[in-house]
Amino acid sequence: MTEAVHKSISAEAEEILPGARESRPEDREFMAPAGDEFRLLAVQLGRFGGAAGGVALVTALMRAAEPRWHLANRSMLYMLLILVTAVLAGRGPAVLAAALSFLALDWYFLHPVGHWNVSNPDEWVALMIFLVSSLVTGQMAAILRARAEEARQREREMATLYELGTATAGQVELAPILTFLAERIRDDFGGAPCEFLLWDHDERLRPLDLPSGPYSGPVTEFALRSGQRDFGRMRVGRRADGWPLTAADRRLLNAFARHAAMAIDRGRLAHEAREARLLRDSDALKTTLLSAVSHDLRTPLAGIKALTTTLLQEDVTLPPEVVRDALHGIDEETDRMTRLVGDLLDLSRIEAGVLRPTREPVLIPELIDDTVHRLSAVLAEREIIREVPADLPLIPLDYVQMQQVLTNLLENAARYSPTGTAITIGAGCAEGNLAMWVSDHGPGVPADQRERVFDRFYRLEHHEKEQHGTGMGLAISRGLVEAHAGRLWVEDTPGAGATFRLSIPVASADSPSLSGAFGSENASPAEAPAPDERGRSLGAES
Amino acid sequence: MSNTERRKRILVIDDEPQIVRALRVGLTAHGYEVLTAANGEEALDLAATTPPDAVILDLGLPGVDGLEVCRTLREWSPAPILVLSARAAEREKVAALDLGADDYITKPFGMNELLARLRAALRRAGGAAPAEAVLEAGELKIDFGRRLVTVAGQEVHLTPTEYSLLRVLATNPDRVLTHGMLLRSVWGSEYGEEAHYLRVFVRQLRQKIEADPSRPHHILTEPGVGYRFRLEE
């Protein structure tokens, strides 16, 4: 069974799960189809018939073979038949065989033959002793048989339950457990099909889509119950060999149903735990957002307010250079707020999962050059080492989002490494993945914090020193890379420092290779047709 | 702008009073006459009765959509349209430019940048540039009549496609041209989606005409939107 099917069942079960209802007193452990009672009765009747037939056969044989046999031999032969009946068919048929043998002895072999009365008192005593001892022997043999049968059944049950327990313990995924149970039922109960139905919100039973498929025909229904919850029903159909389910079978199947119910309950609990964790996470996000908003936004606001009110004072005349300084201050503070608001917006878009990349073919060298160029103020005193092969193919990416990722990584590198040290930015394409990296020669990131640096607002708890980042850059970068189905992580720069590395899978079909275009400076690439020389210029030249 | 000339009239369409106030102060201080409208309907009425020389349009308007105003205005008004747009709304910017807007500015913006864009748009609309057969931008010189391109006096050999691309860019100086516009005008109407041609040719062109192709001076990337040819130093 494929992963995809598992997934869909789990989703389906999750959708239905809240519909689990309280179990009710009128609910029964299981319900067998009406026909099964008759079938069991027929089997039982067959056994009685067999016993009677056996007696008739022995009687006929003895009458034909030797009319002058001694009574003791005859009763021994009957006794043997009763023993065999007790072992093969059990208690009731053995009693029947004993009674019939008693009557046959009396009628056919004791004087007067053909009459119920017995003339010889000795023979009457022997007949009575035969009746009692045959009944006792039959009973004991039947009890032994039942015990052996029971022991075998118990052993089978124990083995099955043990296997069920080990196979389902610790499993939270519902689909594999239910599939396993259905397969076990099919194997252990002569190919009997099995399906699981769960209550939906309207208290209707909805079947789960398991590979065994739906089954039409008479079914025995077992309640899926765990504690006070009733999740639905397990339906087991007829065995392939036509035998009905015995009481022992039903007991065992009920154990299957209990395991299934427990698995469903575990799934429900895991689902609830996940929901709770999500709620807690989003609560935690709101809390950190609030604290960040109140601190980080208030700081530039305070600056702006102070500067503007200074400028608006009417009782003093400010020298022009002070006015300019104040205005520059306001300008810087608004830039800071702009960044904060932008980052907060991006973060909330990422959290909400609405940030979809608009992919278009991107030339990685152009992207890197453009990004570094735009950051020339931040990177002014840095040597930027580019590790970019010239023959990188065009790669479908969201240019704006990837530029933001690289901007954040470069700013981060500039912020956390000493002024004057070099920063390396590189890219490569191998095995269907685009790799990009930004390395600095700062203190690096301690091993135990390599995941935490991607947490939102991590800086706030970590760095006392006033940094100009928003503490959201790395979280946003990771979110944007993940929106491209890629990964972003941090490792050590050989020597010293941190290297942020990203990997994005690239569908080769979407990245037309125009590498030929770079080699031949003076030729039009074959893929790109020459322009229409009649001119469709946008410009005024016509 | 001489005194005898009529003051240029700018129509500001924005529903946010703070922005309208800031623009009115800034533009009036630089000698422009400012008309304002808080929504699309009002703006279209005003533009019809008092034709503006340029329009500053906020795309996030209540009622009639900003893009719709842009489209309607372009049907009968030759005034250049400068679009104000939110951050990270590249699709919206591209849509506005493709509908005939001349340029965009991302909010929040600096007044200097807005004024520079506005001047460039008015200059283009004034019809000063196209008559020139020779364009000079720093070391770069393009002689459209002779199809001759030189950098610092050295002739640069361009392929026909490269030359077409440069011509389209250079004849629309200081103006954002979307990927689609460039593709359609250089390669033809059926090539609107083939952005990778453009990437490759822009790179080649930069290697030929830029002093430092990794820090382009003339052909600037407008992320997610297109390219802009810079004329001014």
Question: Can you describe what's shown?
Answer:
The complex is a heterodimer of chains A (542) and B (233). With 542 residues, chain A is an alpha+beta fold. Chain A has 13 helices and 13 strands. In chain A, strands 1, 2, 3, 4, 5 and 6 form a 6-stranded antiparallel beta sheet that branches. Chain B is built from 8 helices and 12 strands. Chain B has a 5-stranded parallel beta sheet with strand order 2-1-3-4-5, sandwiched between helices. In chain B, strands 6-7-8-9 form a 4-stranded antiparallel beta sheet, with no helix packed on it. In chain B, strands 10-12-11 form a 3-stranded antiparallel beta sheet. The longest helix of chain B has 15 residues, at 111-125. Chain B is globular, with a radius of gyration of 19 Å. Chains A and B meet through α8, β7, α9 and α10 of A and α6, α7 and α8 of B.
Apparent shape of chain A = rod-shaped
Number of separate helices of chain B: 8
For the terminal residues of chain A, how far apart are their CA atoms?
66 Å
Proportion in β-strands of chain B: 15-25%
Biggest chain pair interface: A-B, 47 and 49 residues
Q: Which descriptors would you attach to this protein?
A:
heterodimer, A: 542 residues, alpha+beta, six-stranded antiparallel sheet, five-stranded mixed sheet, 13 helices, 13 strands, rod-shaped, disordered N terminus, disordered C terminus, B: 233 residues, alpha/beta, five-stranded parallel sheet, four-stranded antiparallel sheet, 21% strand, globular
In short:
Chain A is of the alpha+beta class.
List strands and helices in order, with pairings.
The complex is a heterodimer of chains A (542) and B (233).
Chain A: H1 3-16, E1 21-22, E2 30-31, H2 34-65, H3 71-89, H4 91-109, H5 121-168, H6 174-188, E3 194-199, E4 205-207, E5 219-226, E6 229-237, H7 247-312, H8 320-352, E7 360-362, H9 364-374, E8 384-387, E9 395-397, H10 399-416, E10 423-430, E11 433-439, H11 458-462, H12 473-483, E12 487-492, E13 498-505, H13 515-519
Parallel strand pairs in A: 8-10
Antiparallel strand pairs in A: 1-6, 2-5, 3-4, 3-6, 5-6, 7-9, 10-11, 11-13, 12-13
Chain B: E1 9-13, H1 17-29, E2 33-37, H2 40-49, E3 54-58, H3 66-76, E4 81-85, H4 90-98, E5 103-106, H5 111-125, E6 134-137, E7 140-143, E8 148-151, E9 154-155, H6 160-170, E10 176-178, H7 179-186, H8 195-209, E11 219-222, E12 226-229
Parallel strand pairs in B: 1-2, 1-3, 3-4, 4-5
Antiparallel strand pairs in B: 6-7, 7-8, 8-9, 10-12, 11-12
Helix pairs in contact in B: 2-3, 6-8
